[in-house]
Design goal:
Layout lengths: L2 H6 L9 H30 L5 H26 L4 H16 L1 H7 L5 H29 L5 H30 L1 H4 L1 H14 L6 H4 L8 H12 L3 H31 L4 H11 L1 H17 L3 H6 L18 H28 L5 H29 L2 H15 L1 H4 L21
Helix pairs in contact: 2-6, 2-7, 2-9, 3-6, 3-12, 3-17, 4-6, 4-9, 6-17, 7-13, 7-14, 7-16, 11-17, 12-16, 12-17, 12-18, 13-16, 14-16, 17-18
């Protein structure tokens, strides 16, 4: 889209953009279902299959391993094919995979091995969906409106993280954990239907060039990612932070249930209120980015990284401190992600955005898989809270590339350099 056209689109026009609204509504429904699944799968493993911290860590790691294995090929091929059609296929496939869990549970055939398989397979198609999704809407959303679009998307993702655990634990107590997963099955189908109403000519918006061999395209994604200092530094902090977050997530639920002796309902309250911080941050993100600066906000929020140390007093305050930890951590990740998504989408050529996104997701997959396995192992060897403390120290270290970057002196992402090409 030309700069003139971008400037002609008035503020708030995304509410009247049918393509964006259908895409956003589909994502909102799907995210709520996925958030319920994210809490129900480990809850099912702990309460029904008596899973250990190591097994929960491995269950979470399966999703990260899928990210690692699927990101690069997905990113390369997504840039070649119709993104909308691919997302619809991914929705239907994920629904078909997930519906097997209540079926297997009904026939008393459910096992940790099958939960590992479901987590892995659903994540493979979620990777393809996510890369296509984040490469699709920049085609029809003007560059200046990308922060607003990402803020709206992150708002619903945060709302799902807030509501999902509470709704999931309530439904699990009412109809049982396996049947609760049917909500996610329905959400995937609803997402596919809503996506079918989006209409945009992808080929006319994306510059078509002769495609080099697969390995060369993979290399191009990494070259683009590290072609400028700010993009590289935000990527390094993102990847390092995800390793630490995966360490924490591997043992946090187990810590709440086994060490702090919280009931599933109390766990739901911790997640509902704690993730509410992320929801509030997402709602206020556009205003905060206008006030503080869409680039500067990335620099400020990394100073929330030490939040994990709050759990040192959780035995005395088993609801307050875990909730506060989760709240501050959610705010930190939500605001950082909105800003870094916006910069990446506005700085990368549309025809290469899928490859760059895939490159980051591959690195995140490596970090998250190893973090989940290491966190689960460490939680079994020492204790869950010790694992979280170590992860907190590492998260502070991973923030240093951003702390000592040009973001410290730059207000908005428009003031940062954009990438136009990469030498092959």
């Amino acid at each position: 889209m030309s700069e003139a056209n971008c400037l002609s689109i008035e503020k708030g026009s995304l509410w009247r953009d049918r393509n964006f609204m259908c895409l956003w509504m589909g994502q909102s429904v799907s995210e709520m279902g996925s958030s319920i699944t994210n809490i129900i799968l480990p809850l099912l493993a702990i309460t029904t299959l008596s899973a250990t911290p190591g097994e929960i860590g491995l269950l979470r790691a399966m999703a990260s391993i899928a990210v690692l294995l699927a990101s690069i090929p997905s990113g390369v091929y997504i840039d070649r094919f119709n993104k909308r059609s691919l997302m619809i296929v991914c929705d239907f496939v994920r629904a078909a995979i997930l519906v097997t869990v209540p079926l297997f549970a009904f026939y008393d055939q459910l096992s940790m091995y099958w939960l590992y398989a479901v987590s892995f397979l659903c994540s493979v198609f979620s990777v393809a969906f996510g890369i296509a999704y984040h490469s699709y809407y920049p085609i029809f959303v003007p560059r200046k409106d990308l922060p607003e679009a990402n803020s709206k998307i992150e708002t619903t993702e945060s709302a799902a993280r807030v509501g999902g655990p509470g709704i999931g634990t309530f439904m699990a107590g009412w109809i049982g954990a396996p049947l609760t997963l049917l909500f996610d099955v329905v959400s995937y189908i609803a997402s596919a239907v809503l996506l079918s109403f989006t209409k945009t000519d992808e080929s006319s918006k994306v510059k078509v060039t002769k495609r080099p061999p697969l390995l060369q395209e993979i290399g191009e994604g990494f070259k683009l990612l590290y072609a400028n200092s700010v993009l590289a530094r935000t990527a390094m902090t993102t990847i390092g932070s995800m390793f630490c977050l995966a360490m924490m997530n591997a043992v946090f639920l187990y810590y709440l249930i086994s060490d702090l002796k919280l009931s599933p309902q109390m766990v739901g309250i911790v997640f509902f209120i704690g993730e509410g911080g992320g929801l509030l941050a997402a709602i206020l993100a556009s205003a905060l980015m206008r006030s503080v600066g869409s680039a500067k906000i990335m620099w400020w929020v990394v100073f929330l990284s030490p939040a994990g140390f709050l759990l040192g007093g959780a035995q005395s305050h088993p609801l307050l401190l875990p909730t506060l930890y989760l709240c501050l951590t959610s705010v930190r990740f939500v605001l950082f992600d909105i800003a870094q998504y916006s910069y990446r989408q506005s700085s990368c050529p549309l025809e290469s955005l899928g490859k760059v996104t895939a490159s980051i997701r591959t690195c995140i997959g490596i970090a998250a898989a190893s973090g989940a396995i290491f966190g689960g192992w460490l939680g079994s060897i020492v204790s869950p809270v010790a694992s979280i403390f170590i992860a907190t120290v590492l998260m502070c270290v991973s923030s240093l590339p951003v702390v000592f970057s040009a973001l410290r002196h730059t207000r908005d992402i428009e003031d940062l350099p954009a990438l136009t090409h990469v030498d092959r």
